[in-house]
Known about the structure:
The complex is a heterodimer of chains A (195) and B (263). Chain A is mainly alpha-helical and 195 residues long. Chain A folds into two domains: 1-94, Rna Polymerase Sigma Factor, Chain: A; 96-195, Arc Repressor Mutant, subunit A (Orthogonal Bundle), CATH 1.10.10.10. Helices cover 69% and strands 2% of the residues of chain A. Chain A has a two-stranded antiparallel ribbon. In chain A, a hairpin with a 5-residue loop joins β1 (186-187) and β2. The two termini of chain A are 28 Å apart. Chain B has one domain (28-263).
Amino acid sequence: MEGRPLDDLALVERARTGDVNAYEALVQQYQQLAFRVAYQVTGDAADAEDAAQEAFVNAYYALGRFRPGAPFKPWLCRIVANEARNRRMAAHRRTALAERAHRAQASGEAAPSPEAAAEADEFRATLVKTLGALRDDDRLILAYRLFFDFSEADMAEALKVPKGTVKSRLSRALTRLRDALPADFQVSSGGTING
Amino acid sequence: MAESRLGDMELERALRELGSRYPYPPTPNLAVAVRRRIVAPPVAPVRRLTLWRDPRRLALAAAVVLVLAGAAALINPTTRDAIAHFFHVRGVIVSRVSPLPSLSPVTPLNLGRRTTMADAQSAVSFTIGVPAELGAPDAVYIDSQVPGGEVALAYTPRPGLPLVKQTGLGVLITEFRGDLVPGFLTKEVGPSTTLEETSVNGDPGWWVAGEPHLVITRIGDMDYPVTLRMAANTLIWEHGGVTYRIESGLSRADAFRIAAGLP
């Protein structure tokens, strides 16, 4: 989605010395990813925006502990996901994420593009709703891999798990998603997914 | 049912399709707000913490500080604040910072999960103190990520306990094993905040009051803070390896009255 590692390295190094312009460039480069990762956790646009903003500020003050040469993207995502979880807990919002995501779609909060709205169908809504009911770690690993196209190394760093366990975790998350989907959720003969 | 279930590849393809059309809200422009908030040099407070992770470096630093302390205190009274934090309250580092980083006045407290007092007691390695002055808290939180556990007692605002904007509470008391996590809590205090070295129930402590100060918590070798927020008036001290912290909008005298009911 985003990210040219060499540029990141240079920007991070400059930001570590207090170069605010360099850090702003990193924010611009990763704000969409950060917001979307946060949204995967909170299911709420305002909470996701707050969490992403807080994570960028938090990350800036933590740059002194950032391992030189390490990839910035998964480290940032780990902070974002943590902030998003904290924000959800702090708000005492216990509404099931599935319901919130579903409600957001129904109310238009999600504001999909006209094109996407025209193409939206039931299977997508079902997938979104079912994903929303998964545990955070399951939803995040699926999103990192299949929505944001993270490498295994980046997934391991973002989730702070050993690299060797990423595949099995991904597989288990897929299994749990499949188990949670309606029984008639399947692929049609034309290759399209039907609900 | 089982025979019609999706295979991994089909499900992955469905998710990839979904990923490209996921109904995300529009991405807000965060760059301006973030820039506005990062006005202070970022790295200095983090470097200080590395001392605690290496006992040899800590011992060396302490020795150097001891040698220089007398002369430094004579030259500049504020130097004493910076020196005292090495020895004063375990689990806490207090530093004078100018200017103080600009943070949102209200950010999540990150107190852990809400629970019962009995459950919290079973999850921490010390006896939880509840101040007689306040009685049972309105909510109890436990954070088991902190070595030895951290408990938080929350009291909602009421007559005599004014609302604290930074916490949304009347009084917040936290207790943790400062002897197990020496670099857990950092307080950065700006020029407009009073920092008083004091004694609470005969134990060493700090009274931090006036303009809100910055609180940073960090666990083990995590490479980013768990909490980064502004805090109100705080009385903090350590007794028997447990560090107690009272945050409120109360006066010094009222905070000490609450502390009197704690170890």
